[in-house]
Write a structure and sequence with these properties.
The protein contains 8 helices and 8 strands, in the order αβββααβααβββααβα. With 190 residues, the protein is α+β, with helices and mostly antiparallel strands.
């Protein structure tokens, strides 16, 4: 199975696992301002501010991703490229990717120090104020590109011009050995 199909199946399984709606019409996949193309037909209507959303196939292109890589100053792993170009979604564990501006949430993850030192920030742990990132040092060997988290407050104390990779790494907490393992634990086993 190719990476894109694997991500697709994982997103679909995760969506279905938590796709319960109460008698009152509330559910985990309810968001404000859902574009009509993403509204689940059986829930909400045009007048509803909040609607249950559905997965919609993404048209994020290789050129879109290439522009984002240039903006971040990084080369993205193939797993991550598939991750951000498979479906439009409003998942709550990663930046949302709606139809209208699918890469804006990802752009908001940009951190100059992390990117300069070879870490791709890709998610927030909003409950604990931590940024989740991929260590790209081992590319192209994606199996060795580990996932770490760092308290965002720590980044305010580090000087972008003088902080070295080892100094930053001392503040990182290891989570997973690679993106596939992160994906499996979050979307397939979660």
């Amino acid at each position: 199975m190719n990476i894109h199909d694997y991500i697709k199946q994982g997103f679909e399984a995760y969506y279905e696992r938590y796709n319960q709606v109460t008698e009152e019409g509330f559910g985990r996949w309810m968001s404000p301002g859902v574009p009509d193309e993403m509204k689940a037909a059986e829930y909400g209507d045009d007048e509803d501010e909040w609607s249950i959303w559905k997965l919609v196939p993404s048209v994020v292109s290789e050129d879109d991703i290439g522009a984002l890589e240039k903006e971040f100053g990084l080369t993205f792993p193939e797993w991550y490229k598939a991750f951000i170009s498979t479906y439009y979604h409003y998942f709550d564990v990663v930046p949302e990717q709606g139809i209208d501006k699918p890469l804006d949430g990802i752009k908001n993850m940009y951190n100059p120090l992390l990117c300069k030192l070879g870490y791709l920030p890709f998610s927030w742990d909003t409950e604990h104020g931590k940024i989740v990132c991929i260590d790209l040092k081992e590319l192209p060997d994606e199996d060795r590109c580990a996932i770490y988290q760092i308290e965002h407050e720590v980044l305010f104390d580090l000087d972008e011009a003088t902080t070295e990779r080892d100094e930053l790494k001392a503040s990182l907490e290891f989570l997973y050995p690679n993106f596939k393992t992160y994906f499996d634990r979050t979307f397939l086993e979660g």
